[in-house]
Every structure is written in structure tokens, then in C-alpha cells.
Design a protein that fits this description.
Blueprint (H helix, E strand, L loop, with lengths): L34 H8 L2 H8 L2 H12 L2 H19 L6 E5 L5 H8 L4 E6 L2 H10 L4 E4 L14 E4 L8 H14 L4 E6 L3 H10 L11 H11 L2 E7 L7 E7 L1
Parallel strand pairs: 1-2, 1-4, 2-3, 4-5
Antiparallel strand pairs: 5-7, 6-7
Helix pairs in contact: 3-6, 7-9
Bound molecules: S-adenosylmethionine (SAM).
Length: 250
């Protein structure tokens, strides 16, 4: 099978993206043992999020994701990269944490000296957990691809842990939305794969961590389409992890 985008990569039949250009691979299997999981991937994002984020999922989220040795190491590296990106920015003004989940990054922003912080997420179950941990912070429900917030409402907008789960179209829509509501910088996390990841994916047929990772050229193209420019970048745990924190400007 040839990649429909670059026409050069040859994704294995069970691969989720092209090992050469990183484009998501269109599924051809409509029946057989893998059909159910492919159907899951195609299901509407909001439906999936609603299903996944029961209150018990939200309560377990941080422990399941970061409660083991690799999770702790990864979390420390990721949060260090975020703090380095934030250190370059003025610490005043209004900040919005988009896809805030249980408020992990919201809390990091407060610790970093940003006093006026709010959070938004599509899942009320995740935000209930955030409200429990940060009762003095404002949280409101919202979809990152269409937030009901006036343009230029915030001095800084941050979005961690979301973009790599969105298909390219939704990702650009979310980036444009982040740019629209920020009158200052935008800090985001991307899942950006390099040679090691592509090789591993080619061998295993599985994506590396992110559902919709990108390669550098796709990342540049998506930023261009979103009207955003890269100021600086901070890798969390390169080359093992594909996590990249980007500080962007309009
Ligand atoms: C992996 S968690 C990241 C949470 C938090 N930012 C962190 O880093 O710990 C992803 C979050 O994105 C939220 N989410 C998924 N789709 C979204 C969308 N379209 N708009 C806003 N939030 C979304 C989920 O509910 C979930 O809380």
C-alpha cells in the first residue's frame, strides 16, 4: 500500500500513519478483526472524549498517566520544557489553559507566577477534577476548535496534551482558534516524530505515542496555515519522546 499523501512511503497494513511523511493513513479495512478499532478511530472526537472521560477516568487520569517510573520521568521532563518556554514570557496578564483536563498545567501556570489563570476543556468530568484541586480558579466548558470567547481575550494561551490527538484539519482549526483568542503568545505541545520514531513505527506498525504525530515539514505547514510563527522550541525528552513544546506568536 502506498501513502496517498507523499506517494513514497509504504505504510504496513496495520499502520496508522505513513512512516515517511507522517500523514494519517486512510483505512481500507471495513471488516475483519481490526475493523472495530478503526471504526473507533473514525468516531466523532467529542463522542470519544465523552465516553472516555467518565468521572472515574478523570480521577485516575494523572495516576495512570504519570504514576509509574516512566510517567514520572516523562512528566518531569515535559513540565521542565513548559517552564522553560514560560520563563521567556512576561508573567502578568490573563492566561487560558485550553484542554486543561484535571488542571495539571493550570497548577503549573500558577506556580510559575501567572496569577490570573483560567482553564477550559471539552470534558466536564475532567474539569470537575480540576475544580476540586483548584477551587479558586475559573473553569468553563469549551471545544478548542471553536471557543465561545471574544478575539484577543487573553495575554497568553497554552494548550498541552491535545494537538497530537487531533487529525490535521482539526489541529489547524484549534491552532487558529488559539491564535484568535490570544493577544500575545501561544504555547502548544506537538507530537513531532523524528527518524527514531519513524523507524520504530515502521518496524512495529504502531504510531509513536501520538495518534496524529507530525514530521517537521508538516509542523511548519500547519503553523503557516494557522497564521502562527515559531519563537522557540523545547523538547521534553528527545529523542525518546516526540513531545515538543512550541512558543508561538502571531
Ligand atoms: C491528555 S489530556 C491533557 C490534559 C492537560 N492539558 C494535561 O496536560 O495534563 C487531553 C485533554 O483534552 C481534552 N480535549 C479533547 N478534545 C478536546 C477539544 N476538542 N477541545 C478541548 N479539550 C479537548 C480532553 O477532555 C482531555 O482533558
Amino acid at each position: 500500500m502506498q501513502c496517498p499523501r507523499c506517494q513514497q512511503g509504504s505504510p504496513r497494513p496495520d499502520a496508522q500513519f505513513c512512516p515517511r511523511c507522517g500523514a494519517p493513513v486512510k483505512r481500507v479495512e471495513e471488516s475483519g478483526p481490526l475493523a472495530a478499532s478503526y471504526a473507533d478511530l473514525r468516531r466523532d472526537l467529542t463522542e470519544v472524549v465523552e465516553q472516555q472521560t467518565t468521572s472515574s477516568y478523570a480521577k485516575r487520569y494523572e495516576r495512570d498517566r504519570f504514576g509509574h517510573p516512566w510517567g514520572r520521568l516523562y512528566r518531569a521532563a515535559e513540565e521542565r520544557a513548559i517552564r522553560r518556554a514560560l520563563r521567556e514570557l512576561p508573567a502578568g496578564g490573563r492566561v487560558l489553559d485550553v484542554a486543561c483536563g484535571t488542571g495539571r498545567i493550570t497548577a503549573l501556570l500558577l506556580r510559575a507566577g501567572f496569577a490570573e489563570v483560567a482553564g477550559t476543556d471539552v470534558s466536564s468530568a475532567m474539569m470537575d477534577e480540576a475544580k476540586r484541586q483548584l477551587p479558586h480558579v475559573e473553569f468553563f466548558q469549551g471545544d478548542a476548535t471553536g471557543l465561545r470567547v471574544p478575539a484577543d481575550s487573553y495575554d497568553l494561551v497554552i494548550c498541552v496534551g491535545l494537538l497530537m490527538h487531533l487529525d490535521p484539519g482539526a489541529r489547524v482549526a484549534a491552532l487558529r482558534e488559539l491564535a484568535r483568542i490570544s493577544r500575545g503568545p501561544v504555547v502548544v505541545q506537538y507530537g513531532c516524530v523524528g527518524t527514531l520514531h519513524r523507524f520504530t513505527s515502521w518496524v512495529t506498525g504502531k504510531p509513536w505515542g501520538a495518534l496524529y504525530p507530525v514530521v517537521q515539514s508538516q509542523l511548519r505547514e500547519e503553523l503557516r496555515r494557522s497564521g502562527l510563527r515559531e519563537r522557540s522550541r523545547f523538547w521534553a525528552l528527545r529523542p525518546v519522546s516526540s513531545s515538543l513544546i512550541l512558543s508561538l506568536t502571531k
